[in-house]
Design goal:
Length: about 240
């Protein structure tokens, strides 16, 4: 009996895999990354057209990885089974950076914080405010998204922040939020809010070590700029 003919694109798929195994993702276009991920659970179909359409619809590689499964399945060639690669790589990367942060020194390593938060926060269309809870040895206990929307001193309630920190038995906290504009420079409202949160936490003996703002490939660290230390001193006046 004759061997079944290879599906269209089989050679191309093999070349993609060999390129990755030889040189990693260097030289890969974003749609080729998506295509490679789709092939993990698509045994006999060409995935190039679906990958290109996904990138066109969701604009960026992170946009594709973060897209709801239902929206992805509306693209011809993408179904409930072959989105496995797309969802798996996002989940693995989130866990990798979370565990890397646990074993890092988050107080003195704003770059590790940025790496951990970037994929999750950069491509959000609204501002998202997160807290990372630390124990007395400054090890990460957990993290939580508390607010979503336009962040102002009137929208983010210090009492809710303190209540959440106490519920997690945190000795210290790190604040983080994104700027959808891509510019991480703090606004006057960001500075005002940070000052209020620092002072609110100080009243219950919870240390604020950092507030990091995530932009497009860059970040702003209140701690690196010495602003957290100054705010702590100013709480006494």
């Amino acid at each position: 009996m004759a061997e079944p003919s290879a599906h269209k694109g089989a050679g191309h798929r093999q070349r993609l895999r060999e390129r990755f195994l030889t040189a990693g993702l260097d030289g890969f276009l974003d749609y080729e990354v998506i295509e490679l991920l789709l092939t993990l659970a698509t045994p006999r179909k060409d995935c190039k057209a679906a990958a290109k359409e996904a990138l066109q619809r969701f604009k960026t590689l992170p946009g594709v990885l973060e897209a709801p499964s239902g929206d992805l399945c509306r693209i011809k060639g993408i179904g409930s089974k072959n989105i496995l690669g797309l969802k798996l790589i996002k989940a693995v990367s989130d866990r990798y950076f979370a565990q890397k942060l646990v074993h890092a020194d988050p107080i003195n390593n704003s770059k590790a914080l940025f790496d951990y938060l970037y994929l999750e926060l950069r491509h959000k269309h609204t501002e998202v405010f997160k807290i990372i809870f630390l124990n007395a040895k400054n090890r990460v206990l957990s993290s939580k998204t508390l607010f979503s929307g336009t962040l102002t001193a009137s929208a983010v309630y210090p009492r809710e922040v303190v209540k959440s920190a106490l519920a997690h038995h945190a000795a210290a906290v790190i604040f983080a939020h994104n700027h959808p504009s891509g510019d991480p420079q703090p606004s006057d409202e960001d500075i005002k809010l940070t000052r209020q949160l620092v002072c609110a936490c100080k009243t219950v003996d919870i240390h604020v070590h950092e507030h990091i703002i995530i932009g497009d490939g860059q970040y702003f660290s209140f701690a690196d700029q010495g602003m957290i230390t100054k705010m702590v001193r100013d709480c006494d006046y």
